[in-house]
Amino acid sequence: MAKSLSPLGRAEIVARLTELVGAERVVTDERQLREASVDRFRKYTAVHGIFDGPFPAAIVNAASTEDVSRVLAFANENRINVVPRTGRTATEGGLETAVADTVVLDGSGLDTIVSIDTENMQATVGCGVGLQTLEDALRARGFTTGHSPQSKPLAQYGGLVATRSIGQLSTLYGAIEDMVVGLEAVFPDGTVSRIKNVPRRAAGPDIRHVVIGNEGALCYVTEVTVRIFRHLPENNEFHGFLVDDMATGIAVVREVVTGGFRPSVVRVYSPDDARQHFAHFHEGKCVVVFVAEGPKGIVRATSEEIERVVAGHAHVRVDPALIEEWFGNLNWGPDKIEAEKRVMREEAHLGYTTEVSVDWSRTVALYDSVMARVRDEFPAHGDLTLLGAHSSHSYQTGTNLYFVYDYRIDCAPREEIEKYHKPLNAIIVEEALKAGGSMVHHHGVGKYRAPWAAEEHGSAWHILTTLKAAFDPNGIMNGGTIFPLDS
Fold first, then answer.
1. Phi, psi of 225, deg, nearest 5
2. Contact at 8 Å (CB) between 186 and 68?
3. I need a labelling partner for 192 at 20 to 30 A (CA). Which of 16, 240, 260, 349 fits?
4. Residue 448 burial class via C-beta count within 10 angstroms: exposed 0-12, middle 13-18, buried 19 and up
5. For residue 487, is pLDDT > 60?
6. What average pLDDT does the structure give for the chain?
7. Percentages (nearest 5) of helix, strand, coil residues in the chain
8. Nearest of 483, 477, 395, 455 to residue 80 by alpha carbon
């Protein structure tokens, strides 16, 4: 916990915010403030009603870019920490209030679909528009965002852009940074900056990337324009295979992707991870999954290449209908989150993930090193009920590994994070960095990977810290996220 740097006390902060945006937009309800102090990194303590603070002074529900600008300018003038949020699906502590008397600035009310332009193949939305909301509007016209993270039923565009989100169809459509055409953002002094929508330009560095992935540590995303694509689900073809080990699975995926083919879904599951998704057919082996999507001719060519590559490796074919059924149940909505809460309360059991990325040549070695270190060094290894990984996003130069770990909790709820989650997360981060990879692929740095941020960037850390000093000299933006509070 860090002390507030503001000369204003909590009561005065609330009073001034009320003057700025109106009492109906300033929330001071104790329960809501407590719940706003954490995100899903602390889901176990939260489900037990444990919130150790610091608690925000208020939640401000912005209704416009002007609201965001006024609140940030006020906070900047008075050195009040601000945590930006929209859909509240963050998993890495990015929404935690690490500074006393923080203002949580919620943009969910900026929920207008501004335009859908099917000639220029783009859509513009407020930061509070749900991904599912835009997707439904586009599907009705025969189009899609191409963006499908597990949080799709809940996530909103401000958070998707701020955390550098990625979706299950990324090998075909790209990640959020590939989809964003232009955007609007508000900086700590209240300056509103709009990056115009153009197909491409060479007018200096790509300034979109000052905003995309900033996790609310530099500015607040208020509006986004994204590419859209034709939606042709009738052409989809599903492929599944069992292979003996991760090395074989990774080799298959690498050959398909580096050969220039872009299935929408490209995945390899380790045997333990496969058990939770494909228990009815995985047979203790790794599972390789592909979905070919798009125009019929491209789908056929992609499927033929998948079959050609797989034929060169020992494998067992899986009924495509089983893969299609799995694919239809990937996303997490409110029902699955409530079910997870029940398991946490009633069975003292939960699961987490840590996702990293690495070159092709080091992927299997990274997987093996994490498995070995957890087995050999993690004191509570006996409480693990699942330890595995899958590759779910692949590129010409490498892939990601999405490590998954479930465990029975043999301690008081408040102790869970220190006994289990932090040490497991640390092992994976450390091994990814040793392998020359990235410590985070798409969930964001948040507050729990911030201690490794300087090591992640090396000599390029100077670029980020200079941006922070330039845009947020008073240090009001999401203290502790990306940039450790002691940096």
1. -115, 130
2. yes
3. 16
4. buried
5. no
6. 96
7. 40, 20, 40
8. 477
